[in-house]
């Protein structure tokens, strides 16, 4: 398990969007800390504000080695 902090609020995506900068609902709130767990496939998962699981990193050894993770989260 790793503790991760969201760097900027991530909103639910709309149809055809990868990630919205604003939207209907918040997935991850800026400044909040989320526990991340590595699954059996080496993916790092955490739960959003609605308690739904999301992949936040795909590097099996360390989430900080994943580029998407570094744009949106940091390890604490």
Topology:
Elements: E1 2-6, E2 10-11, E3 26-28, E4 33-38, E5 44-47, E6 53-57, H1 67-72, E7 73-75
Antiparallel strand pairs: 1-4, 1-7, 2-3, 4-5, 5-6
Task: Explain how this protein is built.
There is one protein chain. It is built from one helix and seven strands. It has one domain (2-75). The chain is 8% helix and 37% strand. The longest helix has 6 residues, at 67-72.
Outline:
The chain is 8% helix and 37% strand. It has 76 residues and is mainly β.
What descriptors fit this protein?
single chain; 76 residues; mainly beta; five-stranded antiparallel beta sheet; two-stranded antiparallel ribbon; 7 strands
Major pleated sheet: 5 strands, antiparallel
Beta fraction of the residues?
Answer: 35-45%
Helical fraction equals under 10%
> Runs with pLDDT <50, length 5+?
none
Distance between the termini: 11 Å
Number of helices: 1
Assembly category: single chain
* Physical arrangement of strands within the biggest beta sheet: 6-5-4-1-7
Rg (CA only):
12 Å
Mean pLDDT: 89
Order of helices and strands: EEEEEEHE
Estimate nothing, just give the exact number of structural domains: 1
């Amino acid at each position: 398990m790793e503790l991760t902090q969201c760097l900027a609020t991530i909103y639910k995506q709309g149809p055809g969007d990868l990630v919205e900068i604003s939207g209907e609902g918040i997935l991850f709130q800026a400044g909040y800390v989320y526990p991340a767990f590595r699954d059996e496939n080496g993916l790092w998962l955490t739960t959003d504000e609605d308690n739904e699981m999301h992949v936040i990193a795909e590097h099996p050894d360390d989430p900080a080695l994943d580029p998407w993770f570094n744009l949106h989260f940091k390890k604490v």
